[in-house]
């Protein structure tokens, strides 16, 4: 079984991946070059700037950074790195909506993008080439954004974008 997990992790590491997963999807990962999770703040800032640049090109308002959403995104990215999984639902079946309720968010609109990719440029490109992720980026209901980027190994990086009204 571990060979299968390692093979899937190798495929994920070699190809850009932006999940268009359903709430039930959870992919177990075996990192190829693991290390303790490290926050990459410069990539989080770059990803946020790239999102706002896309919105400006579409004639939409830029999103304001929300510290609470960024902390929420960081918790998600860290959990995936520590627990070696990727998906909107964790291995215990806790969903995006479950996490929102537990965090006490009371907004009407929320969306989440996540990618497991080699760097910020590839992750952002993957988001733009996925209809569902792109729709979250340009959704006119969004007013706030939180972003986190966490590395679990060389080229094994989690990117999480949280959007809210």
Question: Would you write up a description of this structure?
Answer:
The protein is an alpha+beta fold and 165 residues long. The chain contains 6 helices and 7 strands, in the order αββαβαβαβααββ. Strands 2, 3, 5, 6 and 7 form a 5-stranded mixed β-sheet that branches. A two-stranded antiparallel ribbon has the order 1-4. The N terminus is likely disordered.
Q: Span from first to last CA?
A: 43 Å
Elements, N to C (H/E): HEEHEHEHEHHEE
Structural class: alpha+beta
Q: Which regions have little confidence, pLDDT < 50, spanning 5+ residues?
A: 1-23
Mass-distribution shape: globular
Indicate the proportion of strand residues. Answer: 15-25%
Helical content stands at 40-55%
Query: How many runs of DSSP E, i.e. beta strands?
Result: 7
Overview in brief:
The chain has 165 residues and is α+β, with helices and mostly antiparallel strands.
Identify the notable features of this structure and list them briefly:
6 helices; 165 residues; two-stranded antiparallel ribbon; 5-stranded mixed β-sheet; single chain; 7 strands; alpha+beta; 43% helix; globular
Present the secondary structure layout.
Elements: H1 2-14, E1 27-28, E2 34-39, H2 41-57, E3 64-65, H3 67-83, E4 85-86, H4 96-103, E5 110-117, H5 120-128, H6 131-137, E6 144-153, E7 156-164
Parallel strand pairs: 3-6
Antiparallel strand pairs: 1-4, 2-6, 5-7, 6-7
């Amino acid at each position: 079984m571990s060979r299968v997990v390692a093979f899937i992790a190798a495929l994920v590491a070699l190809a850009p991946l932006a999940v268009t997963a359903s709430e039930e999807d959870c992919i177990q990962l075996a990192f190829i070059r693991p290390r303790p999770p490290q926050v990459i703040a410069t990539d989080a800032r770059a990803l946020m700037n790239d999102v706002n640049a896309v919105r400006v090109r579409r004639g939409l308002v830029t999103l304001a950074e929300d510290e609470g959403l960024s902390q929420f995104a960081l918790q998600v990215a860290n959990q995936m790195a520590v627990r070696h999984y990727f998906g909107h639902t964790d291995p215990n079946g806790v969903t995006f909506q479950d996490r929102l309720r537990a965090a006490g968010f009371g907004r009407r609109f929320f969306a989440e993008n996540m990618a497991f990719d080699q760097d910020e440029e590839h992750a952002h490109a993957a988001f733009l080439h996925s209809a569902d992720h792109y729709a979250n980026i340009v959704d006119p209901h969004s007013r706030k954004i939180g972003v986190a980027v966490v590395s679990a190994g060389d080229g094994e990086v989690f990117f999480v974008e949280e959007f809210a009204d």
